[in-house]
Design a protein that fits this description.
Keywords: Membrane, Transmembrane, Transmembrane helix. This is AbrB family transcriptional regulator. The chain crosses the membrane at residues 12-34, 40-59, 71-90, 96-118, 160-177, 189-215, 222-240, 246-266, 278-301, 307-327. With 357 residues, the protein is mostly helical. It has one domain (78-242, 268-355). Helices cover 72% and strands 0% of the residues. It has 16 helices and no strands. Helix 2 (14-33) packs across helix 3 (39-53). The longest helix has 33 residues, at 269-301. 51% of the residues are buried. Residues 1-9 and 184-191 have low confidence and may be disordered.
């Protein structure tokens, strides 16, 4: 059995993996005790990330969290997001058109501003700055940047830190606006009835089949988008009204946060700090511009300013979806915009990346 598991998940050092997840869980509970926003996600990320940067080696190995374990839990978040779908969403969707069109301006604007800012510092070359400031498509932009001859390590850190900073700063900003921590307790929940056998079966099919279809069709973030679509279809068809229980969503957040934190393992501290300064400057531009677009577009969409802001904030589809779940706000609106954002960001990079010299 162990050989089968190793073949499916790679061959990590399992005692180190267990301790890494235990550290992530402890970080989540610690963040919850401190009433931090989205505690299970941020607490696990910060705890494991700090251990990785500090060079902690449980059982002689750096912190480990196999990414394939993350792939098992991410569909849970997808079916929870899809659980917000109701038939009346079809009547609301046409109001999203102005903000979806505005993304066509927002993406090249923030990318251009970030690119010019980073090149002006003289700390990175033009290729690395261009691919490192793309507001979406972390995996795709790193791959394209590597093929173009960018500094891959710095590029990966810039993109990863963009994601991390957005994940950290957005919940903190919402907590400040709300006057209390958002997403406390399980960190995400949507209304739903108690799960029966049929509900469990429908959600399980949506999670597994959705992930397989999404990956097979190579959809953006297919392992979460597929479950979102199948879960939304099942809820709109009336096959189920259930959503995953809070404890399962909390577990998924710990797995996601831990898998993000371990990516700092083995990175030179000096380069992390340099990339952090550059990524923070870029984050100020992208988040500040997102606020401006939110204020301008909210009256046109019928959505609250904070929902439009969350739809434009350049974090990950999974992580921004979790924040939307925590705040119980326009979940499918936010998700649809992040899907379009990723597609536009990657398309823009592909169209103009060849002009970098």
């Amino acid at each position: 059995m162990r050989h089968l598991i190793d073949r499916l998940l790679g061959a990590p050092h399992w005692p180190s993996v267990g301790l890494t997840y235990a550290l992530g869980l402890a970080g989540g509970f610690g963040a919850q005790a401190l009433h931090l926003p989205l505690p299970m996600l941020l607490g696990s990320l910060l705890a494991v990330g700090a251990a990785a940067v500090g060079g902690l080696k449980p059982f002689g190995h750096l912190p480990q969290a196999p990414q394939k374990i993350r792939m098992v839990f991410v569909p849970v978040i997808g079916i929870a997001i899809g659980g917000a779908a109701r038939p009346e969403i079809l009547a609301e969707a046409p109001r999203w058109v102005p903000s979806l069109l505005a993304l066509c301006l927002f993406i090249p604007l923030v990318h251009f501003l970030g690119f010019r800012l980073l090149t002006a510092t003289g700390r990175v070359d033009r290729r690395t700055a261009f691919y490192g400031t793309a507001p979406g498509g972390l995996v795709e932009t790193v791959q394209m940047g590597e093929e173009a001859g960018a500094d891959v390590q710095m590029l990966a850190m810039l993109q990863f830190l963009r994601l991390i900073l957005t994940i950290v700063l957005v919940p903190v900003a919402f907590s400040w606006m709300e006057g209390h921590a958002v997403g406390s307790a399980a960190g995400a929940a949507v209304a739903g009835s108690a799960l029966g056998v049929r509900d469990v079966a429908v959600l399980a099919v949506a999670a597994v089949a959705g992930a397989l279809i999404g990956l097979k069709l190579r959809l953006p973030a297919g392992h979460v988008l597929g479950p979102i679509l199948l879960s939304a279809a099942a809820h709109m068809a009336g096959w189920t009204e259930g959503v995953p229980p809070g404890w399962l969503l909390a577990a998924a957040q710990v797995v996601v946060g831990t898998s993000l934190g371990v990516r700092f393992a083995g990175m030179p501290k000096g380069r992390i700090l340099a990339a952090l300064r550059l990524a923070l400057m870029n984050a100020v531009i992208t988040i500040g511009t997102a606020v401006g677009f939110a204020l301008a577009l909210a009256p046109l969409t019928g959505e609250p300013v904070r929902a439009v802001f969350l739809a434009f904030a350049p974090g990950g589809l999974i992580e921004m979806g979790l924040i939307a779940l925590s705040l119980k706000m326009s979940i499918l609106y936010v998700t649809a915009h992040h899907l379009v954002r990723i597609i536009l960001a990657v398309s823009f990079v592909r169209a103009f990346g060849g002009r970098m010299e």
